[in-house]
Design a protein that fits this description.
Length: 130
């Protein structure tokens, strides 16, 4: 059985450039573990990256020894639910891709809060024309 996203569908990939996910598989998956760690697919912003650095979670600095290029605004990255929730509390939450955010995060962050920050783009854009 595949993992589910917060919308109830199959968990979709978050990002592959750079390769994200706890397992570096491009997905915010937990693979059956009881956790809510790297489960939110967030789109990096300057404000979010600065906030994360300020709380001791430097996502901007490259770490070549670990194959980590460092993140820049616009990158999609699976972030921990706790750090994203802290940024939300501080008014600096990153935008969220709901279809790529693991349903397990709902134990910590309500869907209404995630929807406030949703930036999902539908597969079919025909309904968005004038």
């Amino acid at each position: 059985m595949s993992e589910r996203n917060v919308l109830g569908g199959d968990l979709e990939p978050c990002g592959t450039d750079p390769m994200t996910g706890f397992y570096r598989d491009g997905c915010c998956s937990i693979r059956g573990q009881e956790q809510v760690s790297h489960t939110i697919c967030a789109v990096m912003t300057d404000e979010f990256l600065a906030h994360q650095s300020a709380i001791g979670n430097d996502l901007s600095t490259p770490m070549p020894d670990y194959g980590f290029p460092g993140l820049v605004p616009g990158d999609r990255w699976c972030v921990t639910a706790h750090n994203w929730a802290r940024a939300h509390h501080d008014g600096l939450a990153a935008p969220v891709v709901l279809a790529s955010t693991n349903a397990s995060v709902l134990r910590l962050v309500p869907i209404e809060v995630l929807r406030e920050h949703a930036i999902d783009v539908p597969d079919d854009l025909s309904g968005l024309t004038d």
